[in-house]
Specification:
Blueprint: H1 19-23, E1 30-35, H2 42-50, E2 53-60, H3 63-74, H4 76-88, H5 97-108, H6 111-120, H7 147-161, E3 165-169, H8 172-175, E4 184-187, H9 192-195, H10 208-220, E5 224-233, E6 236-238, E7 249-257, H11 259-263, E8 269-276, H12 289-292
Parallel strand pairs: 1-2, 1-4, 2-3, 4-5
Antiparallel strand pairs: 5-6, 5-8, 7-8
The structure holds S-adenosylmethionine (SAM).
S-adenosylmethionine (SAM) binds next to loops.
């Protein structure tokens, strides 16, 4: 990752490290760039910096995340000041502080409270229950990103976004409904393995059938897109591969050592799939590479 790219929202699973490699396949004649599953919006920050498009849309179904991006873009100084206040409110003896901010966020949905929770929670891994309440616990070994560093990241992200970026809240089908053949959509939906069942990472689940229907709609409208979806850590795979009938090329990106596995004392590499819509830069690795790597087990 180029060191200069800001990263104010340190989501676990952010595409920050992979951005230049994913970006290598992005066309450079884009009218509007869409990132409808934005989270930390790492790919949009990359795209803004690389100037791949004339306009940019950052969107997420989670209203406080979208609100956070709006606040970062429109009011960087006030947003950084509020983060500073919340961060400095944590005192060594006050073990309940994080829980109090979490309760306040769950009652009021304030975006900067969410930013603090993301920075301070276990492994920066957000967790929501079925009712949309933030449930992740505090990481007692870290204090979360220092306010000075956050202020610099917010200022720099705002500078990149201003005058070129629109923030939307909603389901990805709605927030990309106006995309057409001049545009480009980067999709990083929650993977099946992390959203269905016990490990509910995000506020909304996305069934594969719904994803496929949405992709078919993009294809029918001639919208170019790339999709990060499913992968493998060691022998464990998450998410089923997409149907070949969609005509997408599948690249496999080595995402490096799995932080999750390392924490559990194992050394395993993570491999992520990147699907390209027809007509995008031909892949350097053939689609059949998945079989060479042993293929997903699910
Ligand atoms: C895997 S994360 C995206 C991470 C992002 N690429 C990054 O670099 O941080 C998925 C995001 O999609 C959002 N999301 C889940 N279901 C959605 C839906 N149906 N429409 C739009 N956003 C959704 C979640 O709130 C979450 O922020």
């Amino acid at each position: 990752m180029p060191a200069k790219l800001p990263h104010p929202v340190p989501y676990q699973g952010s595409k920050r490290m992979l951005a230049p490699r994913i970006g290598a396949h992005v066309p450079r004649d884009v009218e509007v760039w869409f990132e409808p599953f934005a989270g930390s919006a790492a790919m949009t920050l990359w795209a803004l910096d690389a100037r791949v498009a004339r306009h940019y849309v950052i969107a997420d179904v989670l209203a406080p995340i979208a609100g956070l991006w709006q606040a970062i873009m429109d009011a960087p100084t006030a947003t950084a000041r509020r983060y500073d206040e919340i961060w400095r409110g944590q005192q060594p003896g006050n073990r309940d502080y994080f829980d109090a901010v979490r309760a306040r966020f769950n009652a009021e949905g304030d975006p900067v409270d969410l930013l603090y929770l993301i920075c301070r929670c276990v492994k920066n891994a957000v967790r929501f229950n079925a009712g949309g309440q933030f449930t992740q616990s505090v990481d007692r070994r870290r204090l979360g990103m220092r306010p000075e560093r956050m202020a610099a990241a917010i200022a720099s992200a705002s500078h990149l976004m201003r005058g070129r970026t629109e923030v939307r809240t909603g389901d990805w089908l709605a927030t990309t409904a106006d995309a057409d053949r001049r545009d480009f959509v980067y999709l990083d939906p929650p993977y099946l393995g992390t959203t269905i069942g016990r490990d509910r990472r995000y506020v909304r689940q996305l069934q594969q059938a719904d994803l496929i229907e949405g992709l078919e709609s993009l294809l029918a409208r001639g919208v170019r897109f790339m999709l990060s979806y499913d992968g493998m850590t060691g022998a464990k795979s998450y998410g089923a591969p997409l149907p070949e009938a969609l005509g997408l090329a599948r690249l496999l990106l080595d995402a490096g050592m799995s932080a999750q596995a390392t924490l559990s004392g194992r050394t395993e590499r993570t491999v992520e799939s990147l699907y390209l819509s027809p007509g995008l830069k031909p892949p350097s690795v053939p689609c059949s590479a998945q079989r060479e790597l042993g293929g997903p087990s699910s």
